[in-house]
């Protein structure tokens, strides 16, 4: 049996709108310093500087087809040309094509000097010593000109661009093995609650499996952060304080769940208040009303989210993720939003902005948002199906089925 902590009077909480609290959280940190990473480690990172192409793309005139390098002026139906060379992709010789001749070429092979067109093999008899022209092409046909795509020295990506698969391919093609990006934020997650037991362990009466830690670690990794620790502690203020200090030493941001409300065992609240620079907040939202933010003694920001799994999920989305994206250097720190048609009627409390888990679908091109799971913030059953949050403004208490609603799109995009 644990003694209930002495009931010291709690400081007043600031009451904030969701946007006000999100802005306060965003102000806690800026983009992290630049590091140089090999391309293979850079997916999802954000460029810290503009990048210029190191070579022309293509680097030389190249063939867009399998066929023959020719001079277009030599072509007429029925003409027969000597095949004087065979140029596969990867051939590094400098070849010169004499007038009246052809050189066999594969797609991606360099077009010989003197040639001004590629005659596709389909327009010939396919000959190897001599080739018969069955149809003609104009000068320039099927030749990819040096630098027509990208010029050496041309800026191809800008600081703030997120490196998705396309950007990684472009960097490789333009000659970059390494790239300068913002360091990824290191995130430590701390779950608090004496009822928590590791998943896989048997549950005794009164115990539940710890799910916020794995959930937030996954969300932080998906946001581009490096998760350095996922720790669990009992509801003991001294233990929480010690854990916070240990995690802060290794992380750029500490995210906690649980213990931030008004109860007798709300130990994160008490640990933060004892530690100095902390603010308890009531955010006019549902779920996610009790929140706290603070700066730990070593200067590391800590975001304390409520313990209910749906509350922590939504709080991460609207408060933590934008901060992590900012630290990562992203220009756009917020998720994409869209307008959807509401599949079912929704009721919402006055004066609370409600973020409802929903599943997105499409009927003939129109997005439809179907709320999933009940209103309770303990209801995890449908969380996996939620790929959107329906955003109901503070002053709206009822939305009819079919009403247009703002939706935060939780689906992952590469950039
Ligand atoms: P609290 O914010 O600590 O009052 O917790 C609110 C509710 O969330 C309680 O029912 C807790 O048992 C539950 N909860 C808190 N932390 C976790 C966690 N890490 N995993 C699953 N449920 C939790
Ligand atoms: Mg708790």
TrEMBL record:
This is Molybdopterin molybdenumtransferase. Gene3D superfamilies: MoaB/Mog-like domain, MoeA, C-terminal, domain IV, Molybdopterin biosynthesis moea protein, domain 2, Molybdopterin biosynthesis moea protein, domain 3. Catalyzes the insertion of molybdate into adenylated molybdopterin with the concomitant release of AMP. Belongs to the MoeA family. It is an enzyme of class 2 (transferase). Keywords: Magnesium, Metal-binding, Molybdenum, Molybdenum cofactor biosynthesis, Transferase. It comes from the Bacteria.
């Amino acid at each position: 049996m644990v003694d209930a902590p002495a009931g010291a009077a709690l400081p007043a909480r600031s009451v904030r709108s969701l946007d006000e609290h999100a802005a306060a959280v965003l102000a806690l940190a800026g983009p992290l310093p630049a590091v140089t990473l090999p391309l293979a480690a850079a997916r999802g990172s954000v460029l810290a500087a503009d990048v210029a192409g190191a070579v022309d793309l293509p680097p030389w005139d190249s063939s867009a087809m399998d066929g023959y390098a020719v001079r277009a002026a030599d072509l007429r139906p029925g003409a027969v040309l000597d095949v004087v060379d065979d140029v596969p992709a990867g051939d590094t010789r400098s070849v010169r094509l004499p007038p009246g001749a052809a050189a066999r070429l594969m797609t991606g092979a360099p077009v010989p000097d003197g040639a001004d067109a590629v005659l596709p093999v389909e327009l010939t008899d396919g000959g190897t010593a001599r080739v018969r022209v069955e149809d003609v092409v104009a000068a320039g046909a099927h030749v990819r000109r040096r630098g027509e795509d990208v010029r050496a020295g041309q800026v191809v990506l800008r600081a703030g661009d997120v490196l998705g698969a396309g950007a990684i391919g472009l960097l490789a093609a333009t000659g970059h093995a390494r790239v300068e990006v913002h360091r990824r934020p290191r995130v430590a997650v701390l779950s608090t609650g004496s009822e928590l037991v590791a998943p896989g362990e048997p549950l005794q009466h009164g115990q539940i499996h710890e799910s916020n830690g794995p959930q937030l670690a996954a969300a932080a990794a998906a946001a581009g952060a490096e998760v350095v620790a996922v720790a669990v502690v009992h509801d003991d203020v001294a233990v929480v304080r010690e854990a916070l200090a240990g995690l802060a030493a290794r992380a750029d941001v500490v995210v906690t769940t649980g213990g931030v409300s008004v109860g007798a065992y709300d130990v994160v609240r008490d640990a933060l208040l004892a530690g100095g620079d902390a603010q308890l907040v009531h955010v006019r939202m549902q779920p996610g009303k009790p929140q706290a933010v603070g700066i730990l003694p070593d200067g590391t920001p800590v975001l304390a989210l409520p313990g209910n799994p749906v509350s922590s999920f939504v709080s991460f989305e609207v408060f933590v993720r934008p901060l992590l994206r900012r630290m990562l250097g992203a220009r756009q720190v917020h998720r994409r939003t869209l307008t959807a048609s509401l599949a079912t009627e929704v009721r919402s409390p006055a004066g609370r902005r409600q973020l409802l888990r929903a599943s997105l679908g499409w009927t003939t091109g129109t997005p439809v948002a179907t709320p999933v799971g009940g209103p309770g913030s303990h209801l995890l059953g449908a969380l996996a199906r939620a790929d959107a949050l329906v955003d109901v403004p503070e002053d709206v208490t009822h939305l009819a089925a079919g009403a247009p609603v703002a939706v935060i799109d939780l689906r992952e995009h590469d950039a």
